[in-house]
């Protein structure tokens, strides 16, 4: 194992760092790397500065991706933290199992999914990723330490969604979900406006549901979009595996200019007929639609993008409509905007989910108005009693985040015991002052 000085960034590319990186393959090499006093990071699919440590060391865990054990009767899998969720889906779906919760990309690692307590298109009934973790092994100075919700409830809760601050995640024991096959039956419905979208999400009985929203639409068309509802069905994978394409260069600003985005959104909406559409899709295409385009983040140009993602309580849906209207009026949204219903499930002190609705919108970082807009949206979220998703954040303010996460003090107390000298600090944790004294 060697250390390499490199420039690296989060997926949004608007936040970057220069520092030394190591990529250990075995536990002894990991223990040696941790002696450099830096955080463990995953595949850097967090959008902002969560996986960055500018001017310091960081340990990239992607080479530690081995399957350690699997019980085919119970679906309990033990796996190293560097394994990606997409790889687990490919390996175990043919055997009748899949990770119980999958985010929007299969390139996220198990360790990253735990550190951010990720959620998926089934959060309203399956909860968050950390709720399906039976045990997690942290690498400490004394060696590997298994942490369970029964034996170490405080430390376990601080680790789920804890941004890697309780120590390097070496491996985890996961409860996989049994599935009938490798197919998803998907129903797509065109939705005319925001109120109709909320009503459709509430009425949906599908196991998986996600909405694409035209974040450029205003007034009577505000919140129009497409609702996708999915159910797992029997059958082998339909069709051949996708051949991934790539974006070879940073796109010019014109590529995602406001007129282009509006035209694309109009086309994307009307490709679904008035009567709706039913399709059978492979699991990976449903769960990870953008993974077929490698480096799609380059479409935003060399300055990258920020994503604003919030969740508000169910009774604050009108506030979410105002948030969406503010984004549409600002004219900064990209084609990527998502609306979902969430249940109450969350596994950690800093876990993002709450029962309500979540909205995620990408914004090109080249737009000078984005930081001020983001601050205004933060205030609206706080007033609505919601939260900002730290896995996507690159612009939030410390005082806002402290107000949005009421369990911050409990998390801080556990982290202070697990890492008293602050070896696991990242740029995001420093920027938001998450480990400052309560």
TrEMBL record:
Q: Provide the alphabetized UniProt keywords.
A: FAD, Flavoprotein
Residues in FAD-binding PCMH-type domain copies:
14-179
Enumerate the Pfam families for this protein: FAD_binding_4
- What one GO molecular function would you report for this record? FAD binding
Indicate whether RNA-binding appears among the record's keywords. Answer: no
**So which residues are the signal peptide here?**
none
The record ties this protein, via PROSITE patterns, to:
FAD_PCMH
State the superkingdom: Bacteria
Q: Matching PANTHER family, A to Z?
A: D-ARABINONO-1,4-LACTONE OXIDASE, L-GULONOLACTONE OXIDASE
Please give the name of this protein. Decaprenylphospho-beta-D-ribofuranose 2-oxidase
Species the sequence originates in: Rhodovulum marinum
